[in-house]
Amino acid sequence: MTIDDELLAAENLSLRPVTDKRPIAALMTKYWGSPRMLVGMHTYDVTVIDAHGLFDPAGNLVAFASWTMRDKNMMLCALHAVTEGRGIASHMLECVKDLAREQGARNIRAMVSNDNMPALIFYQKCGFRFSTLYVGAVDAYRGQMPGLIKNGYLGIPVHDALELEFAL
Ligand SMILES: CC(C)(COP(=O)(O)OP(=O)(O)OC[C@H]1O[C@@H](n2cnc3c(N)ncnc32)[C@H](O)[C@@H]1OP(=O)(O)O)[C@@H](O)C(=O)NCCC(=O)NCCS
């Protein structure tokens, strides 16, 4: 096991609320061009809503989830693994499921843009099912999310939003 493997092992990561949202907003802006995310035909600013993070023993943020409650639905507005391909997002998502249960949620909703193949695979591997296809939603909301990228994964044009849901 390398030092990196040990630092990133699930048992060595601690979950806590993220109070300083600036690094999250910076990452979201780097990825998507905006700190605002679209879920269920609402836009949410990740600097305003709740966020939890997984931190390594050195205090580095290795994954985060931005979320808010709407009725009995947890709206998962963002979930990022800073280091990919190590099972960290899966671990973060398990923590999110626990948080959602604590909040009394009946399900978790996540929105993925049409280009985002890694996220579409990730959520389905983690038990999410498709619930709604919003054709043209990203284009329709661009005015509320200035700077939002036009092309995403492998240069695929970003137009639509796919909502996935996990029943708790
Ligand atoms: C999508 C993302 C969250 C996956 O994070 P990760 O830590 O690499 O995912 P994990 O290692 O926990 O992988 C979980 C499963 O998803 C699969 N997966 C994750 N990324 C994948 C990819 N790019 N291609 C194929 N499969 C992928 C893994 O193979 C794994 O399957 P397994 O359980 O059968 O081994 C990460 O790439 C990311 O942060 N992307 C940018 C932000 C984003 O798009 N978030 C989601 C929408 S807000």
Secondary structure topology:
Layout: H1 3-8, E1 14-17, H2 22-32, E2 36-39, E3 42-45, E4 50-55, E5 61-70, E6 73-81, H3 88-102, E7 107-113, H4 117-125, E8 129-134, H5 137-141, E9 161-167
Parallel strand pairs: 6-7
Antiparallel strand pairs: 1-4, 2-3, 4-5, 5-6, 7-9, 8-9
Describe this structure in words.
With 168 residues, the chain is of the alpha+beta class. It has a single domain (3-167), classed as Gcn5-related N-acetyltransferase (GNAT) (Aminopeptidase), CATH 3.40.630. Helices cover 27% and strands 34% of the residues. The protein has helices at residues 3-8, 22-32, 88-102, 117-125, 137-141, and strands spanning 14-17, 36-39, 42-45, 50-55, 61-70, 73-81, 107-113, 129-134, 161-167. Strand 2 (36-39) and strand 3 (42-45) form a beta hairpin. The mean pLDDT is 93. Coenzyme A binds next to strand 6, helix 3 and helix 4.
What's this, in brief?
The protein contains 5 helices and 9 strands, in the order αβαβββββαβαβαβ.
Labels describing this entry:
168 residues, alpha+beta, Aminopeptidase, 7-stranded mixed sheet, two-stranded antiparallel sheet, globular, binds coenzyme A
In this entry the ligands are: coenzyme A
Q: What's the β-strand tally?
A: 9
- In CATH's first tier, which class applies? Alpha Beta
Element-level helix/strand string: HEHEEEEEHEHEHE
Tally of alpha and pi helices: 5
Query: Number of folding domains?
Result: 1
Structural class: alpha+beta
Largest sheet: 7 strands, mixed
β content, as a range?
Answer: 25-35%
Helicity range of the residues? 25-40%
CATH topological fold name:
Aminopeptidase
Low-confidence stretches: none
CATH architecture: 3-Layer(aba) Sandwich
Give me the CATH superfamily: Gcn5-related N-acetyltransferase (GNAT)
Strand order of the largest sheet: 1-4-5-6-7-9-8
